[in-house]
Write a structure and sequence with these properties.
CATH class of the largest domain: Alpha Beta
Largest sheet: 9 strands, mixed
CATH superfamily of the largest domain: Alpha/Beta hydrolase fold, catalytic domain
Shape: globular
Radius of gyration: 21 Å
Number of helices: 10
Length: 389
């Protein structure tokens, strides 16, 4: 295996990222072998001498590796800054935190926006675009495992993440049980429901319908399918919130006069969604959105184990803390209970907490003291079991 690490790796945004490159590539579930695997990542905190305090944070669909530091494209705080940092639930004074851009992503890891294996056009890189092979959540985890091994870590103290990040946590525990001491899947499920697939399909069709999508080769004309990608983001963002949260934040408040209009920003909630769409376009690649949503849609951990979810965790020695939110209708509590039930059937060590919140699916990203206390308590208690001070 030939491994090369670069402090930074250029992307189509004109941005660069810390990344490690595996020249022997990666065999994907679809049967295609990537000739070269790149994994972009960030770390914070310090790895102890025993290499026993490493925590892998897995990001959700629209996240990336910038979990606890300002985002290099937007300048906004890290997406989980409320959770990861000195004195926070994932305390970087105690833990060495690793976060990697998922396979298929657009922030430096191998994906549709990265250079195609061994190809260039007149000295210029040829991007994968829609030729990038379909990937799965399991492929994403295999790529992360390569990174963890590269960092010289045999066993992670903990793997945690919410939404699609929680799917990766479950896959880690099923695929590499000896490599995970503690697992925290948050606001997630063991499979993607028909309703969730349907919402993703609406977003994908919005991208396909944008004339600037150009069959997925939009960069060749220096264009971006901004309108389609923005609509995809707007549609998805509605599912991340609860009715109570939308009512509390916006209600039926108007931005302008009370006169009827078809095209102006009339309601505050309309303006908010358009803002979410436009800012997303500035930092995300449309083809990556297609790739990652498809990976989520195909995720079904029970199907990977003969239709029996408990079998996925057979003999697991990992400690689990499964967390859901009462108002999350995208990944409702019943789906977290099903995970906890399967873990109990497998005789795994599992605790389950439903956090009362009216903030919807996005509650795991927001200021939720009960969630933060639960996470901090579980990590502290688990740490004491292996002598982490």
């Amino acid at each position: 295996m030939i491994v090369a690490e670069t402090p930074q790796r250029a992307t189509p945004h004109g941005l660069a990222h810390q990344a490690v490159h595996f020249e022997d590539g990666l065999l994907l579930d679809c049967g295609v072998r990537l000739g070269r695997l790149s994994v972009a990542y960030r770390t914070c905190g310090r790895l102890n001498a025993e290499r026993s305090n490493a925590v892998l944070v897995c990001h959700a669909l629209t996240g990336d590796q910038y979990v606890a530091e300002p985002h290099p494209l937007t300048g906004k705080p890290g997406w989980w800054e409320a959770v990861v940092g000195p004195g926070r639930p994932v305390d970087t004074n105690r833990f060495f935190v690793i976060s990697a851009n998922v396979l298929g992503g657009c922030m430096g890891s191998s994906g549709p926006a990265s250079q195609k294996d061994g190809q260039a056009d007149g000295g210029s890189a040829v991007l994968w675009g829609t030729d990038f092979p379909p990937v799965t959540i399991r492929d994403m985890v295999r790529a992360q495992k390569r990174l963890i091994e590269h960092l010289g870590i045999e066993r992670l103290f903990a793997v945690l993440g919410g939404s699609m990040g929680g799917m990766q946590v479950l896959e880690w525990a099923a695929l590499y049980p000896e490599s995970v001491f503690a697992a925290v899947p948050v606001a997630t499920a063991a499979y993607h429901t028909a309703q969730n697939i349907a919402f993703h399909e609406v977003g994908r069709q919005a991208i396909f319908a944008d004339p600037d999508w150009a069959g997925g080769r939009y960069w060749e004309a220096g264009k971006v399918p901004a309108r389609g990608l923005a609509v995809a983001r707007m549609t998805a963002h509605i599912t991340y919130l609860s009715e109570q949260a939308l009512t509390r934040k916006f209600g039926r408040r108007l931005r302008s006069g009370a006169s009827l209009t078809l095209f102006d920003d009339l309601f505050e909630v309309e303006s908010y969604l358009r803002h979410q769409g436009s800012t997303f376009v500035a930092r995300f690649d449309a083809n990556s959105y297609l790739s990652i949503t498809r990976a989520m849609d195909f995720f079904d951990l029970a199907a990977e184990h003969g239709g029996d979810l408990a079998r996925a965790f057979a003999g697991a020695k990992t400690r689990f803390c499964v967390i859901s939110f009462s108002s999350d209708w995208l990944f409702p509590t019943a789906q977290s209970r099903a995970i906890a039930r399967a873990l109990n059937q497998a005789a795994a060590n599992v605790s389950f907490v439903e956090v009362e919140s009216d903030k919807g699916h996005d509650a795991f990203l927001l200021d939720e003291p009960e969630f933060h206390r639960t996470l901090a308590g579980f990590l502290s208690g688990s740490g004491r079991l292996i002598g982490l001070s």
